[in-house]
Write a structure and sequence with these properties.
2 domains; 33% helix; Rossmann fold; 17 helices; single chain; binds adenosine monophosphate; seven-stranded parallel sheet
């Protein structure tokens, strides 16, 4: 498959694809688009960064271009389920972008915001409804939406939905959709419960698999700095204040840690904002918009809040704290070097995090080049609460909290932070669920390799104008991502 034109897509869809600057379908697109156009169900192993959103959105738009009949009031023609608010908003943005020459309607239904505007948006019937499962269930129970007219269902990032405890809700939702329908299920990984879901709800699907989380993409220049825990903030300020930092995400393991890091960056005169599950949806939306449009240069985030974030030109990812789940490292650093660009990933590793580093290196299959020899005096971090699979795999939920700087005095020797556990906790309320675990989302093998671009230089392009110590605007696209959900 060489071109989008070979796929048999409608003129309006092709025009939008061209406007996006896409020339060649990615592997997932080349396989999923024809299957969906034939009306087949699809079971896809693919993650963010592979171009999977367009893979399922373009055929949907194609059908609407061919035959557009608005669904009856309080119903939707297509339902797209996604694990998080940000991802739902991002998918809806893609629908709008790819559908800009069509006339389809799209609505977003997510938690954390007022239900009223969502009820209004669905009242007349909507072509494409993008929803997180919890809020959708609320609207179904309240009579604002019914699914008996739905002909297509997309389950995106199904393994994240599993991890967040959404499986019972998904099964309930699916039971309300007529069995005569087209269903596509996309997942970064294919654990047994997702297979079971596919067996129960997909009819003779075409199976498509593109590269899974394995190795970080070659375009990311990865570095580890072995540092004392107490020196991390100072070093972070030096790194993100440097002139080659165009736009950076700083990852912390905890929500409180994110706030503290954000404050110290702001105190140093840097343009930084924090995003995590304790922030209201409006705050999350505003922060993400500001980061996208360049009003904020540094986003300090927990793993969970960074899910689904697809922001261009992130030149640096800084792991202020190493994740205790090695896959999270791959997902985190995959926020940079997107769409063929290069990027830098710096990990500040203190003495207590060396074991995490070893786990990460085992996963990626090589030693990451390191500098410094600090951290020898750092005590292991104290462990508080459980480390259950749903509870705190990444420690940014309610289990394993990072101590304050200098809190080594609280540490109990030999007591390591919570690590991956096989135990599965019961799902909590949706807000908690959304902050409960790290994302599987990422794009390790990403678009770069998918598109066959050559791995090359490791440094991001230097932005003229020196370091960002102000909040000056950048002419960056996007910005409306989560607006509809606010
Ligand atoms: P996704 O995996 O859907 O999150 O897409 C990742 C990124 O790839 C998004 O920024 C898309 O705009 C971009 N993208 C999707 N399809 C293509 C394509 N065929 N060519 C170039 N970029 C693409």
């Amino acid at each position: 498959m060489k071109n989008f034109t070979d796929l048999g897509l409608a003129e309006t869809v092709l025009k939008a694809v061209e406007a996006e600057g896409y020339t060649t379908p990615t592997p997932i697109q080349a396989q999923v688009i024809p299957a969906m156009l034939e009306g087949r169900d699809v079971l896809g192993t693919a993650q963010t960064g592979t171009g999977k959103t367009a893979a399922f959105v373009l055929p949907l738009l194609n059908r609407l271009a061919d035959d557009h009949q608005r669904p009856p009031p309080k119903s939707c023609g297509t339902l797209i389920l996604a694990p998080t608010r940000e991802l739902a908003a991002q998918i809806a943005d893609s629908v709008r972008a790819y559908g800009k020459y069509g006339r389809q309607s799209v609505a977003v239904v997510v938690g954390g915001v007022k239900p009223g505007p969502q009820i209004k948006a669905m009242a007349r019937g909507v072509d494409i409804l993008v929803a997180t499962p919890g809020r959708l269930m609320d609207h179904m129970q309240g009579g604002a939406i019914r699914l008996d007219q739905t002909t297509t269902v997309i389950l995106d990032e199904a393994d994240q939905m599993l991890d967040l405890g959404f499986m019972p809700a998904i099964r309930k939702i699916m039971s309300k959709v007529p069995s005569k329908r087209q269903t596509a299920l996309l997942s970064a990984t294919m654990p047994k419960p997702i297979r079971a879901l596919a067996n129960d709800f997909l009819n003779n699907p075409v199976e498509v698999a593109v590269a899974t989380v394995a190795k970080p993409i070659e375009l990311i220049d990865q570095r580890v700095m072995l540092v004392d825990r107490s020196a991390k903030r100072r070093i972070l300020i030096d790194i993100v204040g440097a002139s080659d930092v165009e736009r950076a995400i700083v990852f912390t393991r905890t929500k409180r840690g994110a706030d503290k890091v954000q404050r110290s960056l702001a105190d140093a005169g840097l343009s930084a904002a924090a995003i995590h599950g304790n922030k209201s949806q409006n705050q999350r939306t505003k922060t993400l918009d500001a980061f996208k449009n360049g009003n904020v240069t540094i986003l300090v985030a927990t793993d969970i809040a960074a899910r689904g974030i697809d922001v261009e030109n992130i030149s640096h990812v800084i792991n202020f704290e190493l994740p205790n789940i090695p896959e999270s490292y791959v997902h985190r650093i995959g926020r940079t070097a997107r769409a063929g660009k290069s990027g830098v990933a710096v990990s500040l590793c203190d003495g207590a995090e060396r074991e995490y580093l070893r786990d990460i290196e085992k996963l990626v299959g090589y030693k990451i080049s390191s500098t410094g020899n600090g951290g020898a005096g750092d005590e292991p971090e104290p462990r508080r609460g459980g480390g259950g699979r749903n509870g705190s795999r990444n420690g940014n939920g309610n289990g394993n909290r990072q101590p304050r700087d200098g809190a080594a005095k609280n540490a109990r020797p030999g007591n390591r932070p919570a690590r991956r556990s096989k135990h599965k906790a019961k799902p909590a309320a949706q807000g908690a669920r959304e902050e409960a675990r790290p994302g599987n989302e990422g794009d390790s093998d990403g678009l770069v390799r998918m598109l066959g671009q050559k791995p090359g230089g490791n440094r991001p392009s230097r932005k003229p104008g020196g370091p960002r110590r102000s909040s000056r605007k950048r002419s960056q696209g996007g910005g409306s991502e989560a607006r509809e959900s606010a």
